Amino acid sequence: MSRMIFPNLPVQDLASSVEFWSALGFEFNQEFGSSECACLVINDQASVMLLAADFFHGFHKTTPHTGTEILLCLSAESREEVDELCERAAAAGATDAEERVDQGPMYGGSFRDIDGHIWEVLWMSTN
Q1: What ranges in the chain are assigned the alpha helix state H?
Q2: 3-state secondary structure (DSSP) of residue 87
Q3: 15-41 pLDDT tens trace
Q4: 21 to each of 60, 75, 105, how far by Cα in Å?
Q5: How far apart are CA 31 and CA 96, in angstroms?
Q6: What is the pTM of this model?
Q7: Which domain holds residue 36?
């Protein structure tokens, strides 16, 4: 059985987060959105729920966490796509998007989105 995954992330300004990810070329599933959340579509099996911080913390009565809660990694189809996505992220307001790691069959970059979540972008050679 193939399972879908929906990581949930707190965001400070939902509209700004939607604008940020739209600038990177991602789409949103409006069916699962509201004034307190947006469903960022990664592919047919994975979406990330961007939740207004108060809404996010209301699910489990958690308090805001100040450390790294998770590293998310997106696959890329080429080295060029890694560079392009990181450059688009930087142009949309992301930070730490300049450095790349080249390890032979793997090439990657990363950035912190406008809420400080760390996203890696990775291309892997299948040859």
Answers
A1: 14-23, 53-58, 79-91
A2: helix
A3: 999 999 999 999 999 999 999 999 999
A4: 26, 16, 28
A5: 32
A6: 0.81
A7: 8-58
Would you give the DSSP letter of residue 54?
Answer: H
Q: Which residues, at least 6 apart from 126, have a Cβ–Cβ distance to it below 8 Å?
A: none
In this structure, is residue 35 part of a structural domain?
yes
Q: Are strands 71-75 and 100-103 parallel, antiparallel or unpaired?
A: unpaired
Task: Look at residues 35, 58, 81 and tell me which one is the last residue of a structural domain.
Answer: 58
- Whole-number Cα distances in Å, 123 to 8, 47, 101, 102, 115: 24, 20, 10, 10, 24
Name residue, tokens 């409006």. 30
Amino acid identity of residue 81, one-letter, is E
pLDDT tens string 67-100: 656 778 999 999 999 999 999 999 999 999 899 9
